[in-house]
What does this fold into?
Amino acid sequence: MKILVLSERCQGHTVCNMNAPELFVLSEEDGHASTTCEDVPPHLEEKARRAALACPEQAIVVEG
Amino acid sequence: MKERTAVPPHQPEVDFDHMSPQFGRDPAAAFRELREGCPVAWTPHHGGFWVLTRYEDIAAAARDDATFSSARPPGGKFNVIAIPYTESGRNVPIEMDPPEYFAFRRILNPILSPATVNEVVVPMLEATTHWCIDQIIERGSADLVDDVTAPVPAIFTMGWLGLPVDEWQAFVVAKRLFVLPVDQREEALADLHAVEWLWREVVEARAAHPCGDIISYLATQEVDGRPITTDEVVDMVTLLIHGGFGTSNHLMGQTFMYLSGNRELRSRLRAEPELIAPATEEFLRYFPPNTHLARTVTHDVEVGGCPMQAGDRVMLPWYSANRDPDAFPDPDEFIVDRFPNRHTAFGLGIHRCVGSNVARQLFRVVLTTVLERMPDYEIDEGRAIEMPTQGVSTGWAKLPVTFTPGPRIGAPPPFPGLAS
It folds into this structure.
């Protein structure tokens, strides 16, 4: 499974980090999210899916 | 001479007035009726405006700043981001569009980022909350609005900015302007002008002699390579005050009232701390403290089959988006661990509430502290008083409360200027 934050859509709501802190870190500047890894370890796949579902801006793409 | 072409009518027209007592009695029902019958509609009230009601339409408009402008016209006296127009200083940067918007938003981001809030703001919130509760805890009775939900955000915001915190009541009183019926605003407007003058004086003082507070930080910034002006700093302080005070106050009042009548949920929130985070999101969805924000159409556009014209005003009711059954199953049910919960309480798009990280932490600190120190609080619902209107923000003006008295913890004043 791969995850990607669409930076032009992310507005720094921080909800992904609340749901999956292992996979999403927040900028110290503006709180916008980036991924800690491109390939999601199998035990975090469910969390990745939840983070993508929870994003108010629908800025997270999950593939695979 | 030929007649000018008639302006196409604003259709369909409905009789929707969010400042009316009828709306105030049941905002969810008012939006439901519109959403089901006429999801995009024109109402003649308050100068006339379009009201959107579906999550999808509201989200699309919030993300289309080129069509739906937030900018106050140059020299404009009125706040354009809510309906009705209210005379007030400009809120920078929310009353701006890109690219100007980003030049100012960039200044606010680092002082309100999750990391800074956790490190700098949360200790201030904890100190302020404990100090406020110390003032009432031995009495066994209080008013949850006057003694907790109003002072905590007011004292924190003013102390953090560097304003004289002993004036917090004057600021809270002045801010009632925004929830008064439009024909009853004269006195409150004078009160607002008085406190606006006070923060302008502080800005001018800090610009001359910066110290370590937030106003000093703002006053020493650059915008597009030139020093920020005093007026621009005043306008940013305006945003932080208007954003920081009423919103959190109203959300917490609604929450405490809801929990007063729901002891089971109150017990669960105490016993299961991991519920606080999802519960916070659900309280935000259920009681969004800004019922709406507003935009102005920049060019002719069609939304939901309705032709909008340049200059038309448009209401984006977050309250309605949050109750849209297409986005939230059983939208009128409060589901403490609702998932997913893509509520719009902080707005969507580039204008996402710049204070959202503070708001969530403030809510968490106050909620958990009240549940810990006043666990059996009971609101006298018969004597509770709603705010005079519910159309800009829903909430309570008075929440008389009783509880088993407890000991003071001797919390020191969170900021200089408050009695110990």
Summary: The mean pLDDT of chain B is 96. The two ends of chain B are 77 Å apart (CA to CA). The interface with chain A takes residues 106, 109-110, 112-116, 277, 281, 339-344, 346, 348-350, 352, 356-357 of chain B (CB under 8 Å).
